[in-house]
Amino acid sequence: MVRSTSSSAQRARRLLADRLRELAGDAGLTGKDLAARCGWHPSKVSRTATARTRPSEDDIRAWCRACGAEDQTGDLIASLRAVEGMWLSWRRLERAGLRRSQEERLPLYQRTRRFRSYAVWAIPGLLQTPRYTEDVLRTIQRQRLPTDDVAEAVAARARSGRGPQPCATCRRP
Question: Where does the record locate the signal sequence feature (predicted)?
Answer without folding.
Answer: none
